[in-house]
Specification:
The complex is a heterodimer.
Chain A lengths: L1 H29 L1 H21 L7 E7 L4 H12 L3 E6 L3 H10 L4 E5 L3 H7 L5 E4 L4 H10 L31 H32 L1 H5 L6 H31 L7 H24 L4 H17 L12 H9 L1 H15 L7 H21 L6
Parallel strand pairs in A: 1-2, 1-3
Antiparallel strand pairs in A: 3-4
Helix pairs in contact in A: 1-9, 2-7, 2-9, 7-9, 7-10, 7-11, 7-13, 9-10, 9-14, 10-13, 10-14, 13-14
Chain B lengths: L2 E12 L2 E12 L3 E5 L6 H9 L6 E6 L2 E3 L3 H5 L2 E4 L11 H11 L4 H14 L15 H12 L6 E5 L7 H16 L3 E6 L2 H6 L2 E6 L2 E6 L1 H7 L2 E7 L3 H9 L4 E7 L2 E7 L5 H8 L9 E4 L3 H9 L5
Parallel strand pairs in B: 3-8, 3-9, 6-7, 7-8
Antiparallel strand pairs in B: 1-2, 1-4, 4-5, 9-10, 11-13, 11-14, 12-13
Classes of the chains: A mainly alpha, B alpha/beta.
Chain lengths: ~375, ~300
């Protein structure tokens, strides 16, 4: 008899969760703008980040002041052009003219080749000089890298003396294309944005429209309401992940080294964590506008501190601590590991564990905060 | 007669504002009980406290033998609640809304469809079952809300101003349905600011400023009123009204067409003569007639002194 009533309780509870879930899906399918956003947000962001935000520096406009005008100086210029880092847009007669061009912004750097260039090549003094616009660090570091270019790159020079000190082998992204790193990270950013936004609005909307007063006068348990509300969005998140990863592969040729199952698992963990975060927001805001503002409040650090934009290692310790709290940070690591390096979740169990614990704790906080009363 | 609801010293404060002040209630089983009061008189707050949605600041509530708000979860299954604002889902159809409510109340699967069909027929919605709730008229919405609130056959129905967006004909039908439900054994508590609706209730309480001004059956309230109702006819009623209401013996005066309805305190033994003696010129050619008090008179008498 005890067992029967316990079983009855569980099936009743499941039925209530299902009823909310079905209702949520129905409402979602009828909300055309939201439905369109699910597909359009990842699409636009992917194209935006993939094409426009490119940290690979190529084809910098430069000016050349060649006072040497020898075979070797021309060979140096050809070797530099071959790196594709620079594009020679003008030849100037004097360093002064080149500096003016730099100031106007028509060039990003100027190469000065002195008249004693050949002499300098032989006696080991620096043979030429770069004038660089250092205001954008990414540009200056690209030119700085040219410093390490071995002399042997200049055709006709056999000198063995000043060679590069190390040989470097690049793994996983040998062409150094930033889009490879961006696409898996972008999944994290987009999921943070849409998942938190949808769920934080989901509960507040019921409050704003007056549905909540009726809903809390029914036998629905807060936990059932929470679960019924987040499950439909797990599917939404998986669809978005699919769009980003597959288009990233098709358009930007981002490799997919790991297993799809592992990726789905990691994504599911992250979606759940983001959704509970959204639920917590919705229990402490009164209007959809407030919920939206809170979402932005979470979204910004998720973009800036999670390692999506800037490497985690470069952040100050305090920022690293904050970063560790964000679910997006852990998901970023998992995704890059699985998609780019073919890693397994087990190798990164700490990150997966954090997401799991975050979800369970978050659900409990949200259900506790959501009181079935209007007080 | 046993009581469905009893409350003692029920009080609710929002900060400094006292929304409901030391309210005592006893509502008999299987009757329709009305809360009559102007906007902001504490009707909704009281209903919310009785459902357990709001925690009272002071006082005790017992609903269907349950201690509220402590046992409000147990009350949910036995209670139907209709909020003042339409609170079903605009973007679900009539049928989907009812199905949702049926599942939330765990009605057995095989009965759900039969029960929903029956409700749709009773509430005249069977022709529109696929229509979105958001596109319904005021009367249809309210029928849908009542259909949803009574889906699980609750013993107690709390209706918060159910007819505020409904035309008179729909209102009549709505009350017929309420009496049907009452006959089937439900206790119904309804808040309203319409006199004609209040008059249909078995018993009612008049609320103002969170305080119960009077309670009893409409008939009894009218009989017990501490005032006499006179009707004065003639011209220039607006001016007469000005003059009359300045006196403390005149509780209120309101024009109704070609007549002025005057409430005079019971302290005067012969109010007609008193009127004539006080204003011999103004009352000279007028007939002054004593009439039966209406519920509106009772309401005005109970609440008039405090309205500012």
């Amino acid at each position: 008899m005890e067992n029967v009533s316990a079983l009855r309780k569980v099936t009743n509870s499941l039925q209530r969760i299902m009823s909310i879930l079905v209702k949520e899906l129905r409402q979602l399918s009828r909300d055309r703008p939201t439905f369109a956003m699910i597909v359009i947000i990842p699409l636009i962001q992917l194209l935006l980040f993939g094409f426009a935000i490119n940290t690979d520096v190529r084809e910098l406009p430069v000016s050349i002041v060649d006072d040497s005008r020898t075979y070797y100086s021309r060979a140096l210029i050809e070797a530099l052009k071959a790196t594709q880092v620079i594009r020679v847009v003008r030849q100037d007669a004097t360093p002064q003219e080149a500096e003016n061009a730099l100031q106007r912004g028509t060039v990003r750097a100027a190469l000065l080749i002195p008249s004693d260039f050949n002499q300098r090549l032989n006696d080991g003094r620096p043979p030429a000089q770069w004038l660089v616009d250092g205001s954008d660090t990414m540009i200056s570091s690209a030119i700085l890298k040219l410093q390490t270019m071995p002399f042997s790159a200049i055709e006709g020079i056999q000198s063995v003396s000043p060679r590069a000190l190390f040989e470097v082998v690049l793994y996983y992204n040998p062409e150094q294309r930033s889009v490879v790193n961006i696409v898996p990270g972008l999944v994290g950013v987009i999921l943070t944005m849409t998942m938190i936004m949808f769920t934080s609005a989901a509960l507040v909307r019921e409050r704003e429209r007056g549905n909540l007063e009726l809903l809390i006068a029914t036998p629905v348990h807060p936990m059932e309401l929470m679960i019924g509300k987040i499950v439909p969005y797990i599917f939404v998140g998986l669809i978005q992940t699919g769009i980003i990863i597959s288009l990233g592969h098709l358009i930007f040729d981002v490799p997919f080294v790991g297993s799809i199952v592992q990726m789905l698992l990691a994504t599911m963990l992250f979606i759940s964590a983001s959704l509970t975060l959204g639920l917590i927001i919705s229990t402490c805001t009164e209007t959809q506008l407030q919920a939206m503002q809170m979402t932005v409040f979470i979204l910004l650090p998720s973009i800036l501190l999670s390692g999506f934009m800037f490497p985690f290692e470069g952040m100050p310790v305090a920022a690293q601590w904050l970063s560790e709290l964000l679910p997006a940070t852990h998901y970023m690591r998992l995704m890059r590991g699985i998609v780019l390096r073919g890693a397994e979740i087990q190798c990164m169990s700490n990150n997966a564990l954090y997401l799991g614990v975050f979800t369970i704790a978050g659900l409990m906080v949200a259900a506790k905060r959501f009181k079935k009363s209007l007080d | 007669m046993s009581l469905a609801i009893s409350a003692k010293g029920l009080t609710r404060c929002f900060g400094d504002f006292i929304a409901v002040d030391r309210l005592d209630l006893s509502i008999e089983e299987k009757t329709i009980f009305g809360f009559l009061g102007p906007n902001g008189s504490g009707k909704s707050t009281t209903l919310r406290m009785l459902t357990g949605l709001l925690t009272p600041s002071h006082g005790d509530i017992c609903v269907l033998g349950l201690d509220i708000p402590k046992q409000s979860e147990a009350l949910r299954l036995r209670l139907g609640y209709m909020t003042q604002k339409f609170s079903l889902y605009d973007d679900l159809s009539i049928e989907e809304n009812l199905k949702f409510m049926a599942q939330v109340f765990n009605l057995p699967g095989r009965e759900v469809n039969k029960r929903i069909d029956a409700q749709l027929t009773v509430y005249g919605l069977d022709q529109r079952r696929k229509r979105m709730a958001g596109s319904l008229s005021g009367g249809q919405r309210q029928r849908l809300a009542l259909a949803a609130a009574t889906l699980h056959e609750p013993e107690l129905l709390l209706l918060d101003e159910p007819t505020s967006a409904v035309d008179p004909e729909n209102r009549r039908d709505f009350w017929e349905t309420l009496f049907d439900l009452c006959d089937q054994g439900a206790t119904i508590l309804v808040s309203t600011h319409y006199m004609d609706e209040a008059e249909r209730c078995h018993n009612l309480a008049i609320l103002e400023g969170g305080i119960k001004q009077a309670d009893g059956s409409p008939k009894q309230l009218m009989a017990d009123m501490q005032a006499t109702v006179l009707e004065v006819d003639g011209t220039h009623l607006r001016q007469i009204r000005e003059v009359l209401t300045a006196r403390p013996e005149i509780l209120s005066a309101a024009q109704q067409g070609a007549r002025l309805r005057v409430l005079v305190t019971n302290a005067l033994s012969n109010p007609e003569e008193w009127l004539k003696s006080q204003w011999p010129d103004a009352m000279k050619d007028r007939t002054i007639e004593r009439v039966r008090p209406s519920l509106e008179d009772v309401f005005v008498h109970c609440t008039g002194q405090r309205r500012q």
